[in-house]
Design goal:
Layout (H helix, E strand, L loop, with lengths): L2 H15 L2 H9 L2 H9 L3 E3 L20 E3 L20 E3 L7 E2 L11 E3 L7 E2 L11 E3 L20 E3 L7 E2 L11 E3 L7 E2 L2
Length: 194
């Protein structure tokens, strides 16, 4: 798709949904300068807009580092998000998402992942490939277990799995003793195998 076309699509979408960060660019810059401004956009807050999906053109915001799409009506993380290779912060909390798919592993720079208050039953084993991850918030989902690959995330500082359906906290949490924070309140934990 040529640059002018995707810029028109994303600016029209921003006008419809009153997306401030993009509206500023749309009104401030002439057509020829919008491309640079959009490609250099680093923060985008799309929280509470009622979205069921996002336009695929979001993938052209190549410098995006912070993306909030919380408090919408998303049933899945839109595929365009996985093309945002510079993301370090992703908030998809308070939606209706059931699965964290393997495509999440494409977000190699991700440090902070907020996916709480959804309908997750499972988290893809590929989450273990997010080597830069320092915080993962999984609070208030339907998780019964976590993939063992999560232990390989050596930079993790905090993980919150409170308000899930965990019955057993397995021995794979042993490496997390010490300086890491593991919150697991209000689960169904009957056994600690630690």
């Amino acid at each position: 798709m040529d640059n002018e076309k995707w810029i028109d699509i994303i600016c029209a979408w921003a006008r419809e949904y009153k997306v401030r960060e993009i509206l500023k660019i749309d009104t401030k810059y002439e057509s020829k300068d919008k491309l640079d401004a959009l490609e250099n956009l680093s923060k985008l807050n799309l929280s509470g807009k009622g979205f069921c999906t996002l336009p695929d053109e979001i993938k052209y915001l190549i410098s995006l580092r912070y993306l909030r799409i919380s408090k919408n009506e998303l049933r899945e993380i839109p595929s365009c998000v996985y093309a945002l290779k510079e993301l370090i912060y992703l908030d998809v909390s308070h939606n209706q998402i059931e699965v964290l798919p393997k495509e999440v592993s494409a977000l190699k720079n991700l440090k902070y992942l907020r996916i709480g208050y959804n309908l997750f039953h499972t988290v893809a084993d590929e989450i273990g490939n997010l080597a830069a991850l320092t915080h993962i918030i999984l609070v208030s989902n339907h998780l019964e277990k976590l993939p063992e690959s999560i232990v390989g995330l050596s930079l993790i500082q905090k993980i919150d799995i409170s308000w899930n359906h965990m019955e057993v906290l397995s021995e794979y949490f042993i490496p997390w003793r010490g300086t890491r924070i593991l919150k697991h309140a209000w689960n169904r934990v009957k056994t600690h195998r630690i």
